[in-house]
Write a structure and sequence with these properties.
The complex is a heterodimer of chains A (101) and B (191). Chain A has 101 residues and is mostly helical. Helix content of chain A is 77%, strand content 0%. Chain A is built from five helices and no strands. Chain A has helices spanning 3-15, 27-39, 43-71, 75-90, 94-100. The longest helix of chain A has 29 residues, at 43-71. The radius of gyration of chain A is 37 Å and the shape is elongated. In chain B, helix 2 (21-39) crosses helix 4 (70-88) and helix 3 packs across helix 4. The longest helix of chain B has 26 residues, at 164-189. Chain B has helices at residues 6-14, 21-39, 43-59, 70-88, 93-98, 102-113, 121-133, 137-148, 153-160, 164-189. Chain B is mainly alpha-helical and 191 residues long. Classes of the chains: A mainly alpha (101), B mainly alpha (191). Chains A and B meet through helix 1 and helix 2 of A and helix 2, helix 3, helix 6, helix 7 and helix 8 of B.
């Protein structure tokens, strides 16, 4: 008998003995217990999920503000006054600090 | 009132009632256990595979679209989980080959010489299991599905996610691999 024939005969014989499908007693209860454990809410994952959800509107607001800044007609004037305001604030003489007290 | 259908139970699980998953486990546990037993021999390994299949089914249930029976979707998941198990637990194939004893070789020679009706299928299954353990995970999966479960190439393609030509190529290679091991078993008897 050549190898091909022997292999076919062996596989045919093995096919006649399928594996048992018997499940251990109440095994589904064990799986359900595992699934309930998996289902317990994890505070850190909830927190992370909320952060991810918040990321989209924050990004949208950022985009909207950027767009608004670029298309605003008073952009040049705003820039000039912002620059002047910043300089005044940063360069304020220390003696003026005392006046504020 | 009859038992709820698979789709009713799935809807219920998706709406948050995890307990509706239990009847689904009960309904398909025998098929899944039988599948897991084809790829793992020890009972604890079989139970681990079974558990993993149903946990995956539960967590991925929302991806079940309902255009094919739930059983098909579940069996696809089962076969892929078993394949992952084979790849993760790839023991030394030489060690597996060394488990084939002289008694097995003698039995094989006797088996080859006797008519088909005169042998015990349990002994044949035992030897085939040992031979399958010496194969690569891919070859073992293909031989199991094609030769032992008698699935068609198309069915194997649907179960594994491999294309039909790829299944054919892998089946050809798997048969060659098994023939080689079987040849080695017969040859080593006379060495």
């Amino acid at each position: 008998m050549n190898l091909d024939q022997l292999m076919s005969k062996l596989l045919r014989a093995a096919r006649a003995e399928p594996p048992s499908g018997d499940a251990p007693y109440a095994f589904e209860k064990r799986i359900m217990a595992r699934l309930r454990d998996l289902n317990l809410p994890d505070p850190w994952s909830l927190w992370a999920r909320q952060l991810w959800r918040a990321a989209t509107p924050c990004f949208a607001v950022m985009l909207a503000l950027s767009l608004w800044t670029f298309v605003s007609p008073n952009l040049e004037a705003t820039r000039a006054s912002l620059a002047a305001d910043l300089e005044t604030t940063v360069m304020v003489p220390p003696n003026l600090w005392e006046d504020s007290w | 009132m009859g038992e709820p259908s698979d789709s009713e139970l799935i809807q219920s699980v998706l709406q948050g009632d995890a307990n509706s998953f239990e009847p689904l486990i009960k309904r398909y546990q025998n098929r899944v256990f039988a599948t897991a037993r084809r790829y793992a021999r020890q009972q604890d390994e079989v139970e681990d595979i079974f558990q993993e299949i149903f946990i995956k089914a539960f967590t991925k249930l929302s991806s079940y679209r309902g255009d094919a029976p739930f059983e098909h979707w579940l069996m696809r998941l089962a076969v892929r989980t078993c394949y992952d198990f084979l790849r993760a637990h790839q023991r030394n194939r030489e060690t597996a080959f060394s488990q084939i004893t002289d008694e097995d070789t003698a039995w094989l020679e006797q088996f080859a010489a006797t008519p088909e009706s005169d042998h015990a299928p349990a002994a044949a299954k035992e030897l085939v299991n040992k031979l399958l353990q010496s194969l690569s995970p891919q070859a073992r999966l293909v031989i199991t599905l094609l030769e032992l479960e008698e699935k068609s190439v198309r069915e194997i393609s649907a179960l594994t996610g491999w294309s039909v030509p790829l299944v054919k190529v892998r089946a050809f290679r798997a048969r060659a691999e098994m023939r080689k091991i079987l040849g080695r078993v017969r040859k080593e008897k006379y060495l």
